[in-house]
Fold this protein.
Amino acid sequence: AQSVTQLGSHVSVSEGALVLLRCNYSSSVPPYLFWYVQYPNQGLQLLLKYTSAATLVKGINGFEAEFKKSETSFHLTKPSAHMSDAAEYFCAVSGNTGKLIFGQGTTLQVKP
Amino acid sequence: GAVVSQHPSWVICKSGTSVKIECRSLDFQATTMFWYRQFPKQSLMLMATSNEGSKATYEQGVEKDKFLINHASLTLSTLTVTSAHPEDSSFYICSARYGALPSYEQYFGPGTRLTVT
């Protein structure tokens, strides 16, 4: 069985500040991990994914995430927040079946 | 990049009627498509997995007779909400998988907002 827990349903940062969105996973098989972003009334866009290659994964729009097996974590970071980063972020895990299991989501607010 | 479209983007229907939502992969062939449901301010809930040419696999708790899924070609899957009721109002999102495990990509459509009155 697989599950994802996103710590913090709402994160607020100032423009230019570090963004840190937390994700912990549980998986009985080696996981594939993903971060998606969703803007209001839109579908999901893939930011980055981990598929057992490098543990530090770089994605689009300056985001990156580090897979830490010992901590069962896959936190998403961005050094400097931009107003356009305000959105809903979802962490997801997938196993051998290819089905994505999503976390509850984290709303990122960026203050000017 | 790969594009997945959904039609319609929003629909309002009366209680008791049926609504069909289309999901198309525009520039790639998708052997597997997924249908999700999302309530306001909530996460995506997987409803079913649709494989081309075979019956869809529904997640536990999803009524297969209410949510009919057809995957007739490698680029088209449809979700029909039969005898819709207000509690079926939701945001429905499809996704299409490209490639094989483990190096696959899953692309999401823009979603369809269904409101049942």
Q: What stands out?
A: The mean pLDDT of chain A is 92.
